[in-house]
Amino acid sequence: MLRLINADNAEITEHKKLYRSAFPLNERFPWSMLVRKARKGRAELLTLEHDGKNAGFAYVMTSDRLAYLFFFAVQERFRGLGIGTETIKQLISRYDGKLFFLAIEPLDPTADNYQQRINRHRFYQTCGLKDVPCRVKEAKMVYSVMSTGQRVPVEDYCAMTDAFWVRRLRKLWGIELIYP
Questions:
Q1: Model confidence over 94-147: pLDDT tens digits?
Q2: Which pLDDT score is estimated for 81?
Q3: Taking CA 44 as the corner, what is the angle to CA 147 and CA 6, rounded to the nearest 5 degrees?
Q4: Which domains does the chain have, with CATH numbers?
Q5: Cβ neighbours of residue 72 closer than 8 Å, sequence gap 6 or more
Q6: Where are the beta strands (DSSP E) in 29-127?
Q7: β-strand 176-178 against 53-62: which pairing, if any?
Q8: Residues 142, 175: Cα–Cα separation, whole Å
C-alpha cells in the first residue's frame, strides 16, 4: 500500500541522496533551499511510503489554484511496482480543485536520452496528463508542460513562483512560463 506523507528529517536526508542521483546537476536547485521552502509552507516535500518503507519523494509547489510537481523520484529498488503511477494518481486526487501540472524534458529526437524522454512522456500520459502548448523555462533549461488537461494561466504561474522564489530570484534565474 502506498501513502504520501510529509517527509521527516531522516527521510529528507534519504531524499537528498535520491535527488542528487536522479536529477542532473543542471536541473537541480539547492536542496537546502527546497527544504526550507517546504518547511515555510510554500511547497510540500512528500515521502512515498510503500509498505512502511521510503520508496521515493514528490516535491510539489502549490498555490490556491496550482499544484506543480517540481521534482519526483522513485528509488531504484521500488521501480516497476506501479508506485510511480499510484503516486501521480494520489497527487492528482490530493490537489483536487487545483490545476496539477509538471515540466518534462521535450521530445527532442536529437537528445542523447530520447527514448527515456519518450518513456517518461508515455508514463505521464497513462497517468492522465496531457500536453499543454507552452514551455517552462528554468535558468538555461526549457521544458514541455503536461497537466490534468487545462492551460496553465501565466498570471497564476507567476504569482505562485514569485511567492516561492521571491520575484527578484525568479527574474534573476529566468524562471517563466512561455506560450507561443
A1: 999 999 999 999 999 999 999 999 999 999 999 999 999 999 999 889 999 999
A2: 95
A3: 125
A4: 2-178 (3.40.630.30)
A5: 56, 57, 58, 59, 84, 87, 88, 102
A6: 43-50, 53-62, 66-74, 99-104
A7: unpaired
A8: 10
Give every CB contact of residue 77 below 8 A, 6+ residues apart in sequence.
none
Burial readout 68-99 (b: 16 or more C-beta within 10 A, e: otherwise): bbbbbbbbeebeeeebbebbbebbbebbeebb
| Type of residue numbered 59 | Y
Q: In the prediction, which pLDDT does 139 show? A: 84
Could you tell me the three cell numbers for 60? 510539489
Whether the pLDDT of residue 173 is over 90: the answer is: no
Order of all β-strands in the sheet with 66-74: 2-6, 43-50, 53-62, 66-74, 99-104, 141-147, 130-138, 176-178
Indicate whether 149 pLDDT > 90. no
pLDDT band at 20 (very low <50, low <70, confident <90, very high): very high
Within 47-113, residue ranges assigned H as helices are 83-94
Torsion of CA 9, 12, 13, 17, to 10 degrees: 180
Helix axes 31-39, 9-22, angle to 10 degrees: 140
